[in-house]
Amino acid sequence: MISRWLLILICINVHAQSPEQKLGEALFFDTRLSSNQRISCASCHHPDKAFSDGLATSVGVTGQALNRKSTSLFDVGKAKFLFWDGRRENLKDLIFDPLTNPMEHGFTSDAEVLLRLNSLLDIQQAFYRLNGRKTIDKQDVQNVMVAYLQGLKAPQTAFDRFRSGDKNALSASQLKGYKLFTGVAACVQCHQINEGRFTDDAFHALGAESGKISKKLPQLLAQTEIARKNGTLGVLIATDADVAELGRYLATANPMDIAAFKTPSLRQVKKLAPYMHNGSVSTLSEAVRREAYYRASMEGKSYFLTPEEVEVIVDFLRVL
User: pTM of this prediction?
Assistant: First the structure.
């Protein structure tokens, strides 16, 4: 009988070049990498949704909605910070975080994850063929998953052809949007083109959500300190919506970082609705209006985008 792992490998039409990438891709789609065998990494990171999930906030192994929207994984290997709050700075450290979060993949420890993997004969054999060892360890899992994730490159688009010199790659409307994006609308201040990733790899607080938690800050900050010491910060973010709104503070403990979130890449942004860290904005047009309004307000500017300007910017964004 053909193994479940091989069926997964066949069904996903593997394009990875190395054995490490192939095995990492298989694990990425394998629901056995969750405590109740109901979800996989791909449950929150669908390839057909630019490796996001199309939900306002992701749903974990228990079926309960969490408090953060899943991010696209395209070009994640180039990201300087990971998660909306940047609490990880390299992929290897991130790999076991969702696996060992009881609200996400449902395992309670690294050892429990490894016990599951070492109990699966097909997975064990695959790792043996890769490295000649019978026992799978944490580094083995990290290596193959990182290899796969680093290979997730955003597809080439009309914008890339435009950057390469094809003056006809963008329509007149898209070209107007591009000029606004990089000009008076100042979108490019945060969404820097930056190798075509459209992010500055930085964190910004626009003030849109911080008012909701301002009166609760002493209590919330105390909660996070306890969770940080106990190693349960990830669980707290997943279960407490107010804590999740603390943003970058959760990684730095710097009060200046409260409610600041990472600038997301705009690659394949048309597939990433709803928008913002908490999925609170349903359309790309509204996201553009909101970002432009708060940026102008915070900088004391009187210039705001007209509806027509918003739509040509959106038209441009759709070709990223």
Answer: 0.90
